[in-house]
Each structure stands twice: as structure tokens, then as C-alpha cells.
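Researcher: Next sequence.
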Amino acid sequence: MKALLLQGPGEISQMRVGEAVKPSPQPGEVLVRIMATALNPVDYKTGNQGNPHWSYPHILGLDSAGIVEEIGAGVNHISVGDRVVCHLDLTQKGGYAEYGVTSAHTVSVIPEGISFQDAAALPCAGYTAYQALFHKMHVSSGQNILIHAGAGGVGGFAIQLAKAAGLTVLTTASAPKHEYVHSLGADYAIDYQQEDFVQRTLEITDGLGVHYVLDTVGRDNATRSLKALAFNGQISFIAGPPSINEAISFAHPLSFHSIALGSVHASGNLAEQRKLAQMGDHMLSMLQEGKITSTLSSTITLDEVPAALTDIATRHVTGKIVAMLG
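Model: Next structure:
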């Protein structure tokens, strides 16, 4: 099969399309003929660092949509010919290839009317936002949330999901991207390059702070975000924890949630793994009903993936990029 091959750690820009062995499904798995695979920051991060589970050449790519071509023993709820989307195991060969395998209990069947590219745009960023809002912070209608980097993948989905859940949404974004984040549903856009986001958040909330923060930027930003939280506020973080011990206070109690979507495959926890499919089913339903968009910004070919991952690494990409294989 054709695949985009990573020859070693840190060689993302040198990746080229070549031949790889077509995988076969093991018991409990499905073989998917991949039609579209989304690009994510985790691709360049893990591609640069490598992984002890990998053998080279390795195939990156975590979010794929396609057609089930073969099912492994014991799979009864998925059939050959089903259109599916999946979040792949980052320790295994990925989705920048014509075929991929994954555990059947983690895939979602794509409803009629939804394209492969829109479906592929959902998992990594969308499920991360969903998990942070609903499985960790259990957000409630009528409250408010500060979502960092609202023009990015996770932020874009988080804005939409939060608005659909009845929250008031504040988000950080550079000024040229304010129109975009407002189009997703953000009530307030804060220019982090020109404004102090803590001060602006407190102004908007009459000094009380927000009930929730979703930080996708890093440890320092997460730590500073604690000052924007209200009494009994909650923060979810995906790019490094804030200084938690220093922030624990009787006068200002907070809750902290670590989000690591991709590690669930290695957890051995079937109930948590099945939540990937549950999140996918719900988000695909919302997409079908027009309650959210896929935030798809462009489609590219497999050959164009290395350059696009370099662009994503600069954090200046808006929305989702998807590579088309079919």
C-alpha cells in the first residue's frame, strides 16, 4: 500500500510517499480503507520525539475516516462496507496510508450526508474538547468559560460545544482571527497579543472570573489562567499543568483536570476506550444536525502533509487541515 513514511525521529520534513505493508485486522479490530486523515499538532510533536513502540519507517496520522474492508474475529457491531471514523493508537502505524487498523469498539459509523473529510476532522481535537467540557469539568448551562486559542483545532470545537451547551464563551485569539472565533459562537474575543487576558476576563465577569478554563497553550499560560477563575472554578489543560501546589488555597479553591485523549488506547480500560466511539457518535450527530461544523479549512494531498505539519507547528493555522487519500 502507499503510505507517507517517516524514516526516523525529527525527519518530518523529509517524509516521502512510498510502499508499506498492508496491515491485517486482529481479533476485535477492523481494517479501514482510508479516504481522509486529519493533521494534528501531535503528529509533529511525536514525529520529532519518536516513540519507543515504533519501528521505522513509521506512519504518522491519528484521525482517519474511510470504509471498513475487513473485520477481525469477534467483531459483530461493525460490518464490511461501513463508513467509519476513528482515533488511532499513536503507538501503532497511523493513518497517512491507504489502509489502517484499529479496535472496533472505538470507531463511529459516519451518518449519511457527512463527508469523509469532515468526519476525519473531528476526533483528536473534537474529542479532546468534548472530554474536557463534559467528562471532566461537567459544564453547565448559564455559566461561562475561557477557551484559549479559539482559532485552533481544540479551541474551535470547544467554542462550538460550549455554546451548544448554553455557556457564555470567552476566547483568546489574535485580532485577525476574531471574526472567525465569533463565527464559531464566541461571545468575547480577547487579543492576547495586545490585552492582558486575565484583566479582560475579570472585566467581562465583573471581577468574579470564569467558571471554567480550557488551556491548550502551555504550563505558563495555564498557571496565569488560574487568576481568571472564579471561586470553585475548574481548569482543564492539555499542554502542561499549571503550578497546582502553589495554587491550592482555602480562600480560592479550584479543580484541575489533565486531558490526555490518546493515552486511552494503552490504558487497558475498555469502558474509557468505548467513550471514543460515544463521543464520535454524538459529535457526528451534532454535525449532521448543523449544531457544529467540522472547522475544516483546507484539504491537501498526502505529498503536501510534511509542509502542512510545519505550518501547524507555528500555531498560525486556523481550523483543521485534512489529507485526502481516496
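Model: The chain is about 30% helix and 25% strand. The first helix runs from residue 41 to 49.
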